[in-house]
Write a structure and sequence with these properties.
Elements: H1 9-20, E1 25-28, H2 30-36, E2 45-48, H3 52-59, E3 64-67, E4 73-78, E5 81-87, H4 101-106, H5 121-126, E6 135-138, E7 143-146, H6 151-157, E8 159-160, H7 166-172, H8 175-187, E9 190-191, H9 193-202, H10 211-223, H11 227-236, H12 240-243, H13 245-249, H14 254-271, H15 279-294, H16 307-320, H17 328-339, H18 341-345, H19 359-373
Parallel strand pairs: 2-5, 8-9
Antiparallel strand pairs: 1-2, 1-6, 3-4, 4-5, 6-7
């Protein structure tokens, strides 16, 4: 069908160049979903008949890097932006590659270890995860393709529907469970009955997912302006127990409630452009209440800046995200942010706070605490200090309105 969508002109140029070279090419996935919901896409994914090597021939070796073993694709560098370009695929036979004897003994029967069997655009659409992610758009001809027949309707109705057999989709790739729940949290979608039942039945499978892929997904949650909503959806569906057990075990504690309040405020400020996005800052605000608790203090009371506190900060950061592995540089930055908090709280500086590494992020954490603590009467005895600004305005709720896809001709 004909559709006019406000696609980034640079993406139109990428699609046009691949088509001019003779390769069928579309923008696919979350970008099309977001555009139909009148949202600005965070990034664009492109799917094409060209192999990664052929993509590199079109754009040049300096601009394209081929990555991945389980799923090979091309990364096209446009300035500082990276565009993922994948080749049309069909469902692989078996695991996609020969499994070792040890893998055969422990892995789910239908898990895909390698997904590099190339196919047609129709085959590519039907092997994807959810109908709302399986829309293909040609911005040159303004053609929108919905091969599953449900993608448009499911976006309009806010439904997460697995393509084909839902249990099989999750067994093939357990990371799809996480992605389904991100749709639930971020867009206020609801799974259809088959997909919801399959999610609950498949939760233990996440243990078989690649650690590197799960770590990458955690980074995406922490960098998202909707990460608090993602974590809530993970908890509501029981996924948090398998993904981040420390947060699951502490969900009903004062420290966790305070951590979620801080994380929500941080995400609001990122979404509104008040402060730049930072994974290390997100880690710091989630960890802060648990460092306070480990130091024997109440929420909002911080801790004494001594050597013992450094040990507590490191231990909390280690426990917080297990069994996922966070980048060392991110953890070190989060540690510096937290170590500066007591000095920032008392508004005193002996030369070790202002201008030090992590100071700007540490100051942002203070601003976040200042707002959150004044919304909670339980914390007024501890926060803010006498010379800090006092604010009582309530933060408006960010509501997700379900918009009907528009623009059809």
């Amino acid at each position: 069908m004909k559709y006019s969508l406000p696609v980034d002109p640079r993406m139109i140029d990428v699609v046009d160049r691949l088509q001019e070279a003779g390769y069928e090419t579309y923008i696919v996935g979350g970008a099309i979903r977001d555009l139909l919901m009148e949202r600005r896409p965070k990034d664009y994914d492109i799917s094409t008949a060209a192999t990664p090597e052929q993509v590199r021939e079109v754009f040049g070796r300096r601009s394209v890097r081929i990555i991945g073993r389980r799923f090979r694709l091309a990364h096209l560098h446009l300035g500082r932006e990276i565009i993922e370009i994948s080749t049309f695929r069909r469902a692989p036979e078996g695991h996609g590659r020969e499994a070792t004897a040890a893998e055969e003994d422990r892995l789910p029967e239908n898990i895909i270890l390698s997904d590099n069997d190339y196919g047609t655009v129709e085959e590519d659409a039907l092997r994807r995860d959810f109908t709302v992610n399986s829309l293909y758009y040609d911005p040159v001809r303004e053609d929108l393709l919905d091969f599953t027949g449900n993608g448009m309707a499911d976006i309009e109705n806010g439904v997460v529907r697995a393509i084909g057999n839902a249990r099989l989709r999750f067994e093939e790739d357990p990371v799809r469970i996480l992605r389904a729940l991100k749709l639930v949290g971020q867009y206020d979608f609801s799974p259809d009955a088959e997909t919801e039942n399959a999610i609950f039945d498949s939760l233990p499978l996440i243990r078989f997912a690649s650690p590197s892929r799960l770590s990458l997904e955690l980074e995406k949650v922490l960098s998202s302006a909707y990460g608090d909503k993602h974590l809530k959806a993970f908890h509501d569906y029981g996924f948090l127990e398998y993904f981040l057990p420390f947060l699951y075990e502490n969900w009903d504690t004062d420290a966790m409630r305070y951590a979620m309040d801080l994380f929500t405020e941080r995400n609001y400020r990122v979404d509104e452009g008040v402060y730049r996005n930072s994974i290390s800052l997100a880690c710091a605000v989630l960890a802060l209440p648990f460092v306070e608790r480990a130091a024997g203090n109440n929420c909002g009371e911080l801790w004494s800046p001594d050597r013992h506190a450094v040990h507590l900060i490191r231990q909390v950061l280690k426990d917080l995200f297990q069994p996922q592995n966070m980048i060392n540089s991110v953890m070190q930055s989060a540690e510096h942010i937290l170590r500066l908090q007591p000095g920032m709280y008392h508004m005193e500086d002996d030369g070790s706070v202002i201008g030090s590494y992590g100071y700007n992020h540490a100051r942002e954490v203070i601003a976040i605490q200042n707002f959150v603590c004044w919304q909670d009467e339980r914390l007024e005895d501890f926060w803010p200090p006498d010379n800090a600004p006092r604010r009582r305005n309530k933060r408006p709720q960010r509501k997700h309105k379900k918009k009907s896809p528009g623009g059809a001709e």
